[in-house]
# Entry
Amino acid sequence: MDPNAILNKILRLARLDTTVFDEVRDDVNELVPALIVAGVSALLAGLGATLWFLFLWDDRVQPDNLWLNTFILGGLFLAALYAVWVLITYVVIVQVYKASADLQSLLRTMGYAAAPFALSLLMFIPVLWPVFAIVPLALVFVMTIYATQSVTNADSTQVVMANLAGFAVMVLVLTIIAFSSDDTRIGAGLFAALFEPIS
# Structure
């Protein structure tokens, strides 16, 4: 595993070079790097949410175990929900649309597609924090469409709908958590920042 090669692929994706997905699709050696990219990106998003709580949470009392709940558990929870998104996308394409797709190829491409989550690290910047909370989600959604399209013969509408199903489940779960009590909502990361619970 070459860290420089991984970084090069991420930088190419940042330039919207989606040929990266065609390269990693059939390379069995790219599974671990892809999972690392997704995991580290999710943890960086969790760190961004933690920094948001530290610097932009006004004068309110900091939640208990902020670093554990938001950075570590929040990042891991985001990674787990993203894995659910990938699995839902796969099931919809294969079972609903009856198109062909290889799950390991999808894991490789979708792992790299998660890289924009890392931009949420910048959520601590005043005024601009909503940009770094929302734009990474949009970028990940767009990247997952390209990532999925590279591993299936499904048409583009089917690919978008399959990814929308997975994305919707992730957003629904995070929104429900964000509207829960203060002690648990911090695990929702950027969703806890975007949605204030109704008192």
The two ends are 50 Å apart (CA to CA). DSSP finds nine helices and no strands in the chain. The CA atoms of residues 83 and 107 lie 8 Å apart. The chain has a mean pLDDT of 86.
